[in-house]
Amino acid sequence: MSAPATQSAGTLLEVSGISVSFDGFKAINNLSFSIGPAEMRAIIGPNGAGKTTFMDIVTGKTKPDEGKVLWGDLSRNLIGMNEARIARAGIGRKFQRPTVFEDQTVFENLLMAVKNDRNPLAVLFFKPKFKDLAKVEELAAEIGLADQLSRKSGELSHGQKQWLEIGMLLAQDPKLLLVDEPAAGMTLGEREHTTDILKEAAKTRAVVVVEHDMEFVRRLDCKVTVLHEGSVLAEGSLDHVTQNQDVIDVYLGR
Ligand SMILES: Nc1ncnc2c1ncn2[C@@H]1O[C@H](COP(=O)(O)OP(=O)(O)OP(=O)(O)O)[C@@H](O)[C@H]1O
Ligand SMILES: [Mg+2]
């Protein structure tokens, strides 16, 4: 194996010179930026800026035409790895539509995630160990569903299902959690609780949140990367980027 590329200390993920075209349209255009080990980062930008495509590339769903995605202490290039391997390397992704098993209880869903066996039948056939139960309790507390463990997941509110999904991702202890538009469809109270969950999660891992809701982004209280036409347009505090004339022109001022 060749020596790993040098990466500045304190970098968990670095995308470098990434480009991808769909039918000749450049959705990601020489995109480069990096995320630190236990960093909260918000990504904002207009529709079609490439935010979701960035997540597709990092998770191995979309293969870029050019560039590298360097991961972890060894700066391993993730390009070419399949989605399962990237997930095992420590990258979890939350999709907008929750993938919880609606007929299973909150407890069973969390236990499946802890056991890393997303098969509703499996949970009937094993006797959970004490440490698994303790982990389920811990996760339930972290997502604010400790008093909902025996409820069928299908009965939960939209927000609660999203939190359960986040809990199921945290069960795998990812080093990086990618979250695409978590606030969509949530009430204000649910959005505030979601912020708390993500901020807590970001104390021990990196969390990257794509969101259009600026109040939500403000509450995350973190560095913001603005994407536009597949590249970084601006980066810095929310106050910094929202005063940037280019950002106002392409996104905020519309
Ligand atoms: N698999 C694909 N095939 C063809 N075009 C795609 C594909 N994925 C994304 N695109 C296009 O790439 C561009 C970037 O899309 P992307 O979904 O990444 O934007 P986004 O920043 O997430 O936007 P939004 O805020 O609306 O979610 C869009 O023009 C989109 O239509
Ligand atoms: Mg998107």
UniProtKB/TrEMBL annotation:
Molecular function GO terms recorded: ATP binding; ATP hydrolysis activity
Domain ABC transporter stretches: 13-254
Keywords tagged on the record: ATP-binding, Nucleotide-binding, Transport
Protein name per Swiss-Prot or TrEMBL: Urea transport system ATP-binding protein
Residues that span the membrane, as ranges: none
Cellular component annotations (GO), alphabetically ordered: plasma membrane
CDD domains: ABC_Mj1267_LivG_branched (cd03219)
Domain of life: Bacteria
